[in-house]
């Protein structure tokens, strides 16, 4: 169950000051200090049925839906979309977005993620859309204002409350509408002959992070054996590992809980003419037992801004379940993290096959 916290409370409070359904025929001056009167938008009663778009804030979506508002919600992480009593926005081509005049957002720490979201809101929502985006002050930077200003004519900050703050944006820039999207973005990984695409929230973007580089150096030449060719890139990110394995003849599925990751994995595979199935799911918890011959994994050790290794331990345990006897899990992780005992306990015999100053690559073999 998603519970409101101080950031959510402030977003909701600040939304009341600019919500067209609450303010009726209030002018832009009331909300932002300048601008034209917006009588043409209709009365507050008319706008009460207009959908509110809630991004990356499941507790806010649940709260507004419980108040009887029409709510569309969307988050990057699968767990943030679960058990929310509001309608999930599956596609940015949804025609209902043209009616959205209010968007509520929990600010992502990643400026690229914010840039893509701001671009999508400015492009697809009503021209008079207002964006209310909040976070804890310690996680906010001036760069967030600059990113929003690239898509909206008016950007201002609220007062700080309980160590939280909100950014308001309005006046979607005319150039945003009808233009080609700038995401996903492409880069060449020449040393491996790859074209890599990423969305704003994709881990490491379209670059090769140091941990994945170390792992890729160990698995780039792996080839399947006859009848033993089922592989998963667990936490697939931009799909670099999945695409290389597919190019080597593996039957590969890229698995991630992130919307940005599965979209990027599919795009990278397509750009390199590789066949990769993509699946958005929580690790391999629902995968058939003893089905896979190979799993490669660069697990996260953060949940949002907080350090948290629980997703990694869940990924290791689920990989053990999905591997056939004799199947292998190749994993890379920060050298200070205590994953090796878990690999030996949950999967089987495990050895360190590569390491540098920051990362360790291990190979674990599933016991019967």
TrEMBL record:
Which Gene3D superfamilies does the UniProt entry name for this protein? Vaccinia Virus protein VP39
The protein's UniProt keywords, in alphabetical order, are:
Cytoplasm, Methyltransferase, rRNA processing, Transferase
A biological process term (GO) from this entry: methylation
Q: Does the keyword Membrane apply?
A: no
Q: Which residues form the RlmG N-terminal domain?
A: 86-169
Segments forming domain Methyltransferase small: 194-362
Could you state a single Gene Ontology molecular function term?
S-adenosylmethionine-dependent methyltransferase activity
- UniProt feature, compositional bias: Acidic residues: 25-45
Keyword Methyltransferase recorded = yes
What segment(s) does the record annotate as region Disordered?
15-45
Q: What is this protein called?
A: 16S rRNA (Guanine1207-N2)-methyltransferase
């Amino acid at each position: 169950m998603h519970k409101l916290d101080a950031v959510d409370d402030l977003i909701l409070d600040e939304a009341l000051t600019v919500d067209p359904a609450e303010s009726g025929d209030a002018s832009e001056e009331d909300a932002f200090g300048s601008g034209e009167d917006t009588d043409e938008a209709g009365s507050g009663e008319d706008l009460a049925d207009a959908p509110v778009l809630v991004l990356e804030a499941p507790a806010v979506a649940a709260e507004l839906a419980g108040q009887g508002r029409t709510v569309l919600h969307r988050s990057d992480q699968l767990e943030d979309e679960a058990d929310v009593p509001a309608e999930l926005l599956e596609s940015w081509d949804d025609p209902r977005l043209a009616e959205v005049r209010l968007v509520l957002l929990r600010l992502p720490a990643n400026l690229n993620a914010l840039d893509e979201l701001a671009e999508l809101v400015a492009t697809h929502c009503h021209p008079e859309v207002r964006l209310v985006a909040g976070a804890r002050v310690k996680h906010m930077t001036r760069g967030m204002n600059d990113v929003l200003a690239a898509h909206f004519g008016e950007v201002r900050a609220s007062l700080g409350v309980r160590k939280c703050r909100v950014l308001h944006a309005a006046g979607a820039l005319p150039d945003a509408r009808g233009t080609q999207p700038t995401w996903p973005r492409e880069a060449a990984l020449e040393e491996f002959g790859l074209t890599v695409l990423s969305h704003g929230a994709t881990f490491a973007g379209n670059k090769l992070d140091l941990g994945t580089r170390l792992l890729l150096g160990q698995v780039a030449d792996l080839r399947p054996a006859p009848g033993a060719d089922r592989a998963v890139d667990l936490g697939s990110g931009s799909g670099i590992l999945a695409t290389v394995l597919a190019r080597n003849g593996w039957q590969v599925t890229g698995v991630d809980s992130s919307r940005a990751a599965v979209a990027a994995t599919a795009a990278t595979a397509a750009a390199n003419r590789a066949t990769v199935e993509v699946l958005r799911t929580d690790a391999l918890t629902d995968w058939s037992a003893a089905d896979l011959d190979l799993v490669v994994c660069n697990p996260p050790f953060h949940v949002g801004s907080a350090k948290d290794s629980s997703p990694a331990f869940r990924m290791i345990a689920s990989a053990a379940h999905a591997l056939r006897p004799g199947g292998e899990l190749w994993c890379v992780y920060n050298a200070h993290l205590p994953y090796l005992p878990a690999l030996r306990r949950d999967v089987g015999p495990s050895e360190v096959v590569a390491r540098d100053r920051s990362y360790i690559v291990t190979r674990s073999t599933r016991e019967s």
